[in-house]
Amino acid sequence: MASAPPLSVSSASGCLMSDDTDRQLRSILGDVLGLSADRVAAFDDATGLFGDLPELDSMAVAGLLTEIEDRLDIVIDDDEVDGDLLADFGALRRFVEAKRAG
Amino acid sequence: MRELALVTGSGRPRRVLVVPALFEEANKLRRFTVETMRRLDAAGIDAVLPDLPGTNESLQPLATQTPEGWRAAMTAAAAHFGATHVLAIRGGALVAPAALPGWLLAPVKGAGVLRQMLRARILARREAGVEETQDALLAEGRAHGLELAGYRLGAGFIAAIGALEAETTDRMTVTPELLQGPGLWLRAEPGESPAQADALAAIVAVGMAWEAAP
């Protein structure tokens, strides 16, 4: 496999980035919600966030977004933030993955 | 102007002025802050936690406060209580007295404090169907003051806070990694961590012992 084509190299690094986003988002959500690593590891794409977690009020969401920006080195515009973005874990992860790719 | 302060210990040669975190983070970190003071007391170190004017038990209105006024109040408290060191928590680092050596726990820039509060307001209003922008809110705030995350801040406060940064000379910055746990200010709801309070008090106590060593 010494002569692997560039395409598979780039898709491999894409997977790593995606794994890293997933791991970091779980870590941040654990820190914000005060949950253990086991609890956040059990999150799946359909795990509800905003609307399902009463403690995620506007101040907590602002803190969550700021922490995501700091740890993942992205900038999230205020007008990108709505209920859909934080509807569930899958929506948040896809948004952050797109930001990091782009 | 009289303000209340929580004091642990008395009459010992080493006294730490604790400058609290700001706004919502002050609530989230109050227990952690006081738990740290109790541990300092057990280690033979006095600690003083004053109210920032316009917050907690203060008789003053919040809307007339400025960051410079808060720094002046903390400087006056340091002199009144004879503080030898300062421990400033998060945004408290922005209003710590200029001259005291000490520690800054995860200090934030004023711009970051302001941005997060503006964002919280924008998100809350969006839920109510009202669209606002940071630029427009800032312009309004600098002219007339602004209510952010439930805090009524005056024009002088809004105009000044964004440019502030912590004074780090003679001060050690304590990161969450050093406390070996995620910052309790990140929590959506107030939490506590005896282990982190142990770690912060130990850093302060060891630093003072090192300083006092011949």
Care to describe what's here?
The complex is a heterodimer of chains A (102) and B (214). Chain A is an all-alpha fold and 102 residues long. Chain A has 4 helices and no strands. In chain A, helix 1 (6-33) runs antiparallel to helix 3 and helix 1 packs across helix 4. Chain B is of the alpha/beta class and 214 residues long. Chain B has 2 domains: 5-108 and 166-212, Rossmann fold (3-Layer(aba) Sandwich), CATH 3.40.50; 110-165, no CATH class. In chain B, 43% of the residues lie in helices and 15% in strands. Chain B has helices at 24-42, 67-81, 110-127, 134-144, 155-161, 176-179, 194-212; strands spanning 5-8, 15-19, 46-50, 85-89, 102-105, 146-148, 151-153, 171-174. In chain B, the strands form 2 sheets. Chain B has a 6-stranded mixed β-sheet with strand order 1-3-2-4-5-8, sandwiched between helices. In chain B, strands 6-7 form a two-stranded antiparallel sheet. Chain B starts with a strand and ends with a helix. The A-B interface holds A 28, 30-34, 53, 55-67, 78, 81-83 and B 24, 112, 115-117, 119-124, 126-127, 133-134, 149, 182-183, 185-189, 191.
Helix content of chain A: 55-70%
| Helicity range of chain B | 40-55%
Which two protein chains have the largest interface (Cβ within 8 Å of the partner's Cβ), and how many residues from each? A-B, 24 and 24 residues
CATH class of the largest domain in chain B: Alpha Beta
Number of strands of chain A: 0
Per DSSP E runs of 2 or more residues, the count of β-strands of chain B stands at 8
